[in-house]
Amino acid sequence: MQQPSTKHSIGLNTSPAMCERLSYVDGHLHIGLCWQPRLGDGCTIPVWMLSMESAYDQALAYILSLTDLERRTDLTGARAQLGLERMKVMLDAIGHPEAAYWTVHVAGTKGKGSTAAMIERVLRATGMETGLYTSPHLHTFRERIRFCGRPIAPTALASLTAELRLCVDAMPDRPSTFELATTLALLYFARRRAHAAVLEVGLGGRLDATNVVTPRVAVITSISYDHMAILGNSLGQIAYEKAGIIKPGVPVVSSPQHPEALAVIERIARERGAPLTLVGRDMEVRITDASKNGVWATIVGAGYCHDVHVPLIGEHQATNAATAVAALEVLRQQGVPLTARQMTDGLSLVHWPGRLEILARRPTILVDGAHNVDSAQKLRAALDEFFPLEDQHRAWPAQSCTDAAQRRRRHFFRALRPRVLILGMSADKDIRGIMNVLVPGADAVIVTRSNHPRAADVELLKSAAAPFGCTL
User: Fold this and answer.
1) What are the φ/ψ torsions at residue 71 (nearest 5 degrees)?
2) What does DSSP say about strands 196-200 and 217-220: parallel, antiparallel, or unpaired?
3) Separation of alpha carbons 144 and 156, rounded Å
4) Fold of 79-348
5) Which is higher by pLDDT, 197 or 431?
6) Does the CA dihedral 276-280-285-290 come out positive or negative?
7) N or C: which end of the chain has fewer CB within 10 A?
8) Which CATH superfamily is domain 357-387+418-468 in?
């Protein structure tokens, strides 16, 4: 007997809330259709599980069919493809939805996602309806576009994509995946009547698709080496691209920077008449405590002092929090209703997965997205401080013993609970530099490869880790 096709068109009469309850796996809508009709001879037709290609699937496929620098393996000529003209064409066509709310624009190499999440969470704590646009995503593309903390619904993404497709298909120079996603976010926030939106730069800043807004405050987090093939090989060149988000007369807040990067930021801010607040110079952050439960800090600036707790691991998150607070204080000076209590409440509730995130505690399993030497150093520092190998030896009763006996006991417990590093990264990253930081702090290394087109081959990772003499 011929088996039925596994692709069917099925009409559903459901509410949007019901659509959200349907099962999405890897962006695909799966609907189980089971039947067991009896045939005349008493046979039973097997139960089949059918899969319906949804409007969301079609929308996502269309978005990803465009030029996608995140997935390109050959970045030759990628810089030439950057620019704002396509964004301007799309926004002109749809009536500039970004003008319906005010924005905060966040650039930087490291910490920009965490800082953006902190700013958005504090604004949401005031009762504002907020948008948050970040990239890349961890689990689903919809995570990139959030309204009041919730990812855009599959139905909303599908309908807005269909609406924008009319414009996109008429363009002789079609936008990239990121440009279309950015336009989707700007339009979605307007449709939801957002009061404010926090936009994270995707790549660089000057030519990034998000740089079509004139924000109330621009934020530049820590700048280090990354995406050199596109942004440049020096910190000065990279800083020039990041500082491209600085607009004439718009206040800018910067995290502490390397002198070479800071000089560029200061020059551009001065040329554009943009008041600059520098964390560490114009305001101070003092860490009062740090643990596996986050970091506590006192942040002091002109006319304010906040004792804050951020439930993100790593002392570098105190700097990100100070940068967020500085930006929020600028907004308060501009008349945004924001109390000190809302500031501390919002920061205490921030959630930003994939950054030293604890998935399990027995054994302790952490995930982190460190992908350059600077972020690897911050990861290693946090591991050594909050998850030291010494913690694995405390089950041994405290008693006086010789150094040799103590070393044997430490070795025994270390052998029972080693630190295992499971590592994968993109082929265009500084693989050896990252290995130099992370591998010496591990007892064993497992190298792996994701299904991303730019993922490094496991043999390349294995050869890079081999000189450190760890178990592979």
Assistant:
1) -110, 0
2) unpaired
3) 13
4) UDP-N-acetylmuramoyl-L-alanine:D-glutamate ligase (3.40.1190)
5) 197
6) positive
7) N
8) Mur ligase, C-terminal domain (3.90.190.20)
Residue 124 has pLDDT above 50, yes or no: yes
Percent of the chain with pLDDT over 70: 79
- Give the count of alpha carbons within 13 A of 464, CB side only: 24
Q: Judging by beta carbons within 10 Å of its beta carbon (0-12, 13-18, 19+), is residue 30 exposed, middle or buried?
A: middle
Q: How confident is the model at residue 9 (pLDDT cuts 50, 70, 90)?
A: very low
Three-state secondary structure along 104-135? EEEECCCCHHHHHHHHHHHHHHCCCCEEEECC
Higher pLDDT, 453 or 152: 152
CA 246, CA 240: separation in Å to the nearest integer?
A: 10
Each domain of the chain, given as residue ranges in start order, spans 1-53, 79-348, 357-387+418-468
Spatial CB neighbours of 415, under 8 Å, sequence gap ≥ 6: none
Say if CB 253 and CB 218 are below 8 A apart: yes
Q: Quick one: which of 350, 113, 338 has its CA closest to 216? A: 338
Phi then psi for residue 377, to 5 deg, are -65, -40
Distance CA 443, CA 434 (A): 16
**Chain CA centroid to CA 232, Å:** 22
Extended strands (E) in 302-356: 304-310
Classify residue 16 by burial, with Cβ atoms within 10 Å: 0-12, 13-18, 19+.
exposed
The percent of residues above 90 in pLDDT, for the chain, comes to 62
Separation CA 28–CA 15 (nearest Å): 19
User: Partners of 51 in the beta sheet?
Assistant: 7, 30
d(CA 424, CA 461): 8
The interaxial angle of helices 340-348 and 316-333, nearest 10 deg, is 150
